[in-house]
């Protein structure tokens, strides 16, 4: 495609005879020698202009970007058919130049090299400039018809025989093509570089496993822009590279180009919630502009492109990377169809996820701002609900096809841990919490300790729940599937409804009695191997549990004995009848001490009557006694 000519100049017409060594042009009737291409020794830059160092004055000024070049006409028209076809006019004084080359491939630096070539000065071809020079020579139509050994043929030979035979040179040229669109595409430079790179990858990885030696090309490919990366991945997939290798390369590329949402550091807001909006940090870049200078639209393009080239095999991409890709897709408002496909893909490998990976923030970027409201939940529960539904549907399909099921213990622990995380959010409704908790079939959870922890966290975060809502929430939990420690904690939990506490106490007594007697507890569904494996313990754990139970039993016996004694004393103190004074007097009269004193007094009186002289002695004895 030729550039639109901004200034109409007179057409050059050859009227002279080349045999006499001169050529005449009708524009200004100037006789120019044929050896004019050797009149300049170089170029000199003054401020924003370049001047050809020559004894002859320049007769043409060309503007490229913000640089003006003052040159001679003949060296350029002798090799550039594009400039020969232009009709020259006298210099336009108010513009300061005769011709402006818009969107010139490679810019002013590349045009300087073109001028040196036209003046016969030495130039250097290398992988950094060969693509730009090839595009610029095509722009100026520097073909063999103008002169033998023109720039098109020289750059094409260097590109074909030097660049394409080297891995590093092909990568370098492909990077330089990022700013040469559409010329590099039209001249097949990009396609030939991608084909060369893909063939080199295929030859070294077609029959080998993934090792450090086979991933040598990951770093080089990760330096390319997404459109070139997409073409290379598509090419090597067609050639038969293993999906695991392709998946590893995509993850490596994503680690370099995708922002990293760091959700490990959590804070709390004034309500005690885990803050998420401004606290979510994008460590690889900023919200407005990433470290590699990409805006939101470019980030969205990268995300959508990576989703579109994901290998369909389950083991090719890790679930952690898929969830990270999903967070980015929601954040940058990617295509809903691609997000839905990604959710289904995550559902196939959900058992390999971690609770932190499922913490998907509830916000999206609009232009350069984050959209979020106070009524929204911190984490996107609806997305996790859909992923869990896809997982259960996938498990049903495997069951119908008689394929081995996934480990149910892992998925139950994952869901319960996620419930415990979202339970801290005040904006999570009891309906969403209950629906997500009840999404798993009852036989999947072999132990309800994690579910009890999530429910207790929710009740603690929502203290204003009614009694009806608390009972409704606790019905999800099965007290018979709680461990002994969980039962002991639940029995003292004031946040639980009274009926649930009674059920927990009964279950606790049964477990303690069975544990003391050395029996294994299997709550239900004895034919389920997952439940049997969950209740099996090592001998050391069983021994320590029995010792703790014995100590607990002794302590409970002592407490029961002390309580019984205190209760009996209390009953005696409250139920003791009041005795009248008359009856007390009768008892005193009947006592042996009272009778003894009375006998002594009577005998003393008798002696006093018989022996009146001894009265003083008797009185003294009584006082002494």
Question: How would you describe this structure to a colleague?
Answer:
The protein has 26 helices and 13 strands. It is of the alpha+beta class and 625 residues long. A five-stranded mixed beta sheet has the order 3-4-6-5-7, covered by helices on one side. Helix 8 packs across helix 10. The longest helix is centred in the last third of the chain and has 37 residues. It is elongated and about 135 Å long. The protein starts with 21 loop residues before the first strand and ends with a helix. The N terminus and C terminus are likely disordered.
In a nutshell, what does this entry contain?
Helices cover 52% and strands 7% of the residues. β3 and β4 form a beta hairpin.
Give the SSE layout.
Blueprint: E1 22-24, E2 31-33, E3 43-46, E4 49-52, E5 60-64, E6 67-71, H1 73-77, H2 81-84, E7 99-101, H3 107-118, H4 130-139, H5 151-163, H6 167-176, H7 183-186, H8 189-205, H9 218-222, H10 226-239, H11 243-257, E8 261-262, E9 267-268, E10 274-275, E11 281-282, H12 296-308, H13 319-331, H14 336-348, E12 364-366, E13 369-371, H15 381-400, H16 408-422, H17 430-438, H18 449-461, H19 467-474, H20 484-491, H21 498-516, H22 529-535, H23 539-575, H24 581-590, H25 592-610, H26 615-624
Parallel strand pairs: 4-6, 5-7
Antiparallel strand pairs: 1-2, 3-4, 5-6, 8-11, 9-10, 12-13
Helix pairs in contact: 3-4, 4-5, 6-8, 8-10, 13-14, 14-15, 16-18, 20-21
């Amino acid at each position: 495609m030729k550039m639109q000519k901004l200034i109409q100049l007179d057409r050059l017409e050859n009227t002279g005879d080349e045999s006499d060594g001169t050529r005449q042009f009708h524009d200004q009737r100037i006789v120019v020698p044929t050896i004019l291409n050797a009149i300049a020794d170089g170029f000199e830059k003054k401020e924003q202009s370049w001047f050809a160092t020559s004894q002859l004055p320049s007769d043409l000024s060309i503007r490229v970007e913000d640089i003006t070049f003052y040159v001679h006409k003949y060296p350029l028209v002798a090799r550039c058919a594009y400039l020969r076809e232009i009709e020259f006019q006298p210099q336009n004084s108010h513009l300061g130049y005769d011709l402006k080359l818009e969107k010139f491939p490679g810019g002013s630096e590349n045009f300087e090299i073109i001028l040196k070539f036209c003046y016969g000065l030495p130039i250097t071809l290398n992988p950094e400039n060969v693509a730009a020079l090839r595009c610029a020579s095509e722009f100026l139509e520097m073909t063999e018809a103008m002169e033998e050994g023109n720039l098109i043929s020289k750059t094409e030979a260097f590109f074909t025989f030097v660049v394409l035979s080297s891995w590093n040179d092909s990568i370098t040229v492909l990077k330089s093509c990022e700013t040469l669109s559409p010329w590099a595409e039209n001249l097949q430079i990009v396609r030939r570089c991608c084909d060369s790179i893909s063939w080199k990858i295929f030859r070294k990885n077609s029959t080998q496993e993934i090792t450090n030696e086979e991933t040598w090309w990951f770093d080089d490919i990760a330096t390319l822009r997404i459109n070139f990366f997409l073409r290379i991945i598509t090419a090597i997939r067609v050639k038969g590279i293993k999906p695991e290798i392709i998946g590893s390369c995509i993850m490596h590329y994503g680690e370099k180009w995708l922002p990293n949402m760091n959700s490990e550091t959590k804070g709390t807001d004034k309500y005690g919630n885990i803050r998420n909006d401004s606290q979510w940090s994008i460590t690889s870049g900023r919200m407005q502009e990433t470290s590699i200078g990409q805006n939101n639209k470019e980030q969205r393009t990268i995300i959508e492109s990576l989703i579109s080239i994901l290998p369909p095999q389950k083991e090719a991409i890790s679930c952690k990377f898929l969830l990270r890709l999903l967070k980015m897709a929601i954040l940058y408002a990617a295509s809903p169809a691609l997000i839905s496909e990604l959710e289904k893909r995550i559902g196939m490998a959900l058992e390999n996820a971690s609770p932190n990976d499922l913490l998907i923030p509830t916000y999206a970027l609009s232009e350069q701002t984050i959209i979020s409201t106070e009524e929204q939940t911190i984490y996107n529960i609806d997305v996790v609900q859909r992923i869990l539904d896809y997982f259960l549907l996938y498990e049903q399909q495997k069951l119908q096809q008689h394929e081995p099921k996934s480990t149910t213990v892992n998925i139950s622990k994952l869901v319960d841990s996620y419930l415990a995380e979202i339970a801290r959010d005040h904006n999570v409704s009891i309906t969403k919490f209950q629906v997500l908790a009840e999404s798993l079939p009852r036989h999947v959870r072999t132990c309800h300790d994690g579910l009890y922890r999530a429910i207790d966290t929710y009740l603690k975060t929502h203290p204003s729940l009614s009694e009806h809502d608390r009972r409704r929430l606790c019905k999800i939990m099965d007290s018979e599937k709680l461990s002994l420690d969980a039962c002991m904690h639940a029995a003292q939990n004031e946040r639980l409804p009274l009926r649930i506490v009674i059920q927990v106490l009964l279950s606790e007594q049964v477990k303690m009695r069975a544990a003391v007697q050395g029996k294994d507890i299997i709550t239900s569904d004895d034919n389920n191997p997952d439940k049997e494996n969950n209740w099996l313990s090592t001998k050391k754990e069983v021994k320590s549990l029995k010792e703790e139970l014995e100590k607990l039993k002794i302590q409970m016996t002592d407490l029961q004995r002390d309580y019984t004694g205190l209760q009996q004393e209390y009953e005696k103190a409250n139920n003791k009848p009041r005795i009248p004074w008359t009856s007390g007097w009768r008892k005193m009269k009947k006592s042996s001490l009272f009778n003894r004193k009375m006998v002594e007094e009577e005998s003393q009186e008798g002696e006093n009557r018989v022996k009146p002289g001894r009265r003083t002695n008797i009185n003294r004895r009584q006082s002494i006694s």
